[in-house]
Design a protein that fits this description.
alpha/beta, 34% helix, five-stranded parallel beta sheet, D-2-hydroxyacid dehydrogenase, D-isomer_DH_NAD-bd, 2 domains, elongated, NAD, NAD(P)-bd_dom_sf
Length: 374
């Protein structure tokens, strides 16, 4: 551990006036505890970016990562009773947490009950709202603690998978693979071109905006849904979610980027898939619950959907008896499209920026709505 310098209040006021942002009212430091296995280099990076953070960590107490961004760590790793006690004592001393303890909602509930000083929790998952919901916290805790997620840090990586899925559908990847397996050389056929396609992006948040940008760069006509209705770069037309069926009828491909909430469950259902343009491609990089999988299988079977590239599923791991596994027009990705070594650094930087915002009294990024847990 290194000593963390504290910026005197007068100096902070001067700096704030120079930068044009308000100074923090009284708080000169923030005791933040790292609850998951974050590399020491990135811990030091957080301290460099926001020196008012008193960043507490003990790498001997974490479940070690098995690969990049494996925040929950090795499930085979078991703490001794002494280590468990030390870990919980460290967690329960926090004003802020980097990550849910062991990425376990029940452990979040335990520390919230044990620690009245806790004022901010940052979830390392983009879908951190679902983790907070699963903790079943009392309403007073949801009102007094700020919860943020890592939404936005995966935008470009997921957008690349979405683009890959749209391209795979346009170029008949299943047919190419089947003919290669069979060593069968057929007559040539015409493949679709992205710049001749209309793509419906369901959800224009951080991921959807990145998807739209990449598709627009390739010349696609992009239609998108947005709760705010605000213009988004690269999107030719924004439609209301209530108009999804009519929008789907125009689309050569549909890309789903929405989170899993009560409002989005089954949103892309039979009405949308019945209306979809014959042979269209469906890509999901949001949450599996947004698509009605039974309706999707039916649409794949009768050809209304020509190809589906799915990184997420309603139940994960995907059950062995799911018809999606063996469907000839489905590409199954085991929720791995977002995984990238740079994710850890992006989240560390996001945490430091949100700490600055908290200390300076500014709105925090990716704040979880604790009514919809989005």
């Amino acid at each position: 551990m290194t000593d963390v310098p504290t910026v005197p209040a007068a100096a902070r006021r001067d700096l704030a006036e120079e930068s044009g942002r308000p100074a923090a009212a009284e708080t000169t430091s923030l005791r933040a505890v790292v609850a998951v296995d974050l590399d020491e280099r990135l811990c030091r990076r957080i301290e460099e970016l926001e020196p008012r953070i008193d960043l507490i960590r003990d790498h001997s107490l974490y479940r070690p990562m098995r690969g990049p961004a494996d925040w929950s760590g090795d499930p085979e790793h078991v703490r001794s009773p002494e280590e468990r006690s030390a870990y919980e004592e460290m967690i329960d001393s926090a004003e802020a947490l980097f990550g849910l303890p062991d990425v376990d909602p029940s452990q979040l509930a335990r520390t919230v009950a044990a620690n009245p000083r806790l004022r901010w929790v940052h979830a390392t998952a983009a879908g951190g709202g679902a983790q907070v919901k699963a903790a079943d916290l009392p309403r007073e805790a949801l009102a007094s603690i700020a919860f943020t997620s890592s939404a936005g840090v995966h935008g470009d990586t997921l957008a690349e998978f979405a683009l890959f899925g749209v391209l795979a559908g346009a170029k008949d990847l299943p047919r190419l693979q089947a003919q290669q397996r069979e060593h069968r050389w057929t007559q040539r056929w015409e493949m679709r071109q992205i710049d001749e396609m209309t793509v419906l992006v369901v959800g224009l948040g951080g991921i959807g905006s990145s998807v739209a940008e990449k598709l627009d760069a390739l010349g696609a006509t992009v239609v998108g849904t947005s709760r705010s209705g605000r213009p988004v770069d690269g999107v030719d037309r924004i439609v209301d979610v209530a108009d999804l069926p009519s929008a789907a009828a125009e689309a050569d491909a549909v890309v789903v980027t929405l989170p899993g909430t009560a409002a989005t469950e089954g949103l892309v259902g039979r009405d949308v898939l019945d209306a979809i343009k014959p042979g269209a491609t469906v890509v999901n990089v949001g949450r599996g619950t947004v698509i009605d999988e039974d309706a999707l299988v039916a649409a794949l079977d009768d050809g209304r959907v020509g190809f589906a590239a799915l990184d997420v599923f309603a139940v994960e791991p995907l059950p062995e008896d799911s018809p999606l596994w063996d469907h000839p027009h489905v590409l199954v990705s085991p929720h791995t499209a977002a995984l990238n070594r740079a994710e850890e650094e992006r989240i560390a930087k996001m945490f430091a920026e949100n700490a600055r915002r908290l200390l300076d009294g500014e709105p925090m990024r990716s704040r979880v709505d604790t009514m919809e847990f989005y």
